[in-house]
Amino acid sequence: MRYNRIIIAPDKFKGTLSATRAASAMYSGVRSALGDSIQVLKLPLADGGEGSLVALHSLRPKLNLCADILPNASGLNRSVCYLANETDAYFESARLLSLNFRDNRRLPLLDRRSSGLGRWVQHMLTQQKRNLFLFLGGTAVCDGGLGILQEFGFQLLDGKGNQVNSLRNLPNARRLVPPAVFTSIQANIKMFSDVTNPLLGPTGAPKLFGPQKGATPNDVALLEDGLAQLSLLWAEFAKQSDTNWPDGVGAGGGIALPFLGMARKQVTLNSGSLFFLEESGLADTIRPGDLILTGEGRTDAGTLAGKLVDAVVHLCRKVGADCLVISGAVADHDRLEAANYPKTIAVSSNGSVPSRKVAADELCKAVSRVFTGV
Questions:
Q1: Percent of the chain as helix, strand, coil, to the nearest 5
Q2: Coiled-coil ranges per the record (predicted)?
Q3: Domain range for residue 246?
Q4: What's 207's DSSP letter?
């Protein structure tokens, strides 16, 4: 089929290529096969996880690049970049709390904390920012925001009035006590998740993502009980009759929970993928007759739970544009077929994501083969 345009809109290829480098490799592959015979646009995106800040800065270059010194998941201070203007500030949790950082991996999961994110929010409130944008995905923690809670001066007490300061004792928490002087959050906190997963249950933060972060079966059971108790206490504090938090609250190890509990009226939790589709203008750009190339490091059943590739696939379906997914590796073909996915191609032939050293070249070649049939 002859297309009017090709729009390249990938996510990062986790661990190997940023979304920008992936888009460039795809672009080279298209040009290698088709030359200058067709208009090709590059639009690297993100989903609310790793790479969100870079993608946003490419879309809004007038935002100022700033830095803060904050504790990472293991409690060690590190310099972290964020974006800001006079009224708004944007923070990517993975830039501080990512499992990719050795310091964050050196402690067991039960000892890692989200405190640094809470401290950054407090710094921005002190600067009287009106809107805080938090990208939640890609963290090494699963503390349900326990560190954030503590940064804001809240205390957890067990049935005997003893403080609960550890995830190991979290199932024993019975009371959530605010600080003596608690000023409600005045800024709007807009959170974006890279998944639609709930806090608890088979697809929740402890059971699904805990093992990926190093949790043992005993850790998972403890975290499931502890986060369930924390969820109940925040619902009581927020005067909610239930614990029906928004979709995606399981992102980042449940770090959205304290913000939802502290300031429900000022806080929203939405899809990071949809945020970037809107921010980039892609939703208004594509039309029938276009071909959209998208991809990620690994396309599998997890892609269906709010990832960027899934959002692009649904957008194309809605508009009537064709879509082609080219990812580092592809798995769970039956689940993708059941979801009526478009043609999905793996760069790798052995099921593993290509190494960082060859990833760009291999992606370029894979895209070129699609259009030449070689």
A1: 40, 20, 40
A2: none
A3: 52-273
A4: I
* Residues 9/311, Cβ–Cβ less than 8 Å: no
Number of domains in the chain: 2
0.90 surpassed by pTM: yes
Q: Pairing relation of β-strands 5-8 and 188-193?
A: unpaired
Same domain, 91 and 158: yes
Domain boundary pick from 233, 248, 273: 273
Residues 311-315: contacts with CB within 8 Å, 24+ apart?
311/47, 311/271, 311/273, 311/274, 311/277, 312/9, 312/45, 312/273, 312/277, 312/282, 313/341, 313/342, 315/277, 315/282, 315/283, 315/286
Q: Are residues 94 and 172 located together in one domain of the fold?
A: yes
Tens-digit pLDDT profile for residues 191-243: 999 999 999 999 999 999 999 999 999 999 999 999 999 999 999 999 998 99
pLDDT at position 1 is 62
CATH number for the domain that contains residue 186: 3.90.1510.10
Q: Tens digits of per-residue pLDDT, 9-35?
A: 999 999 899 999 999 999 999 999 999
User: Which segments in the chain show pLDDT lower than 50?
Assistant: 374
Q: What CATH number does the domain containing 20 carry?
A: 3.40.50.10350
Q: What is the DSSP string of 45-104?
A: ---SSTTHHHHHHHH-TTSEEEEEEEE-TTS-EEEEEEEE-SSEEEEETHHHH-TTSHHH
Q: Which residues of 161-185 are buried (b: 16+ CB within 10 A; e: fewer)?
A: eeebeebeebbbbeebeeeeeeeeb
In a domain, 279, yes or no: no
Q: For residue 289, which amino acid is it?
A: G
Residues 213 and 90 in one domain: yes
Q: Measured between alpha carbons, how far is 56 from 46 in angstroms, rounded to an integer?
A: 8
Continuous H helices in the chain? 19-34, 52-59, 94-97, 102-105, 115-126, 146-151, 217-237, 257-262, 272-280, 282-285, 308-319, 333-338, 359-372
- The label of the residue with tokens 């080279």 reads 28
Looking at residue 239, its pLDDT comes to 94
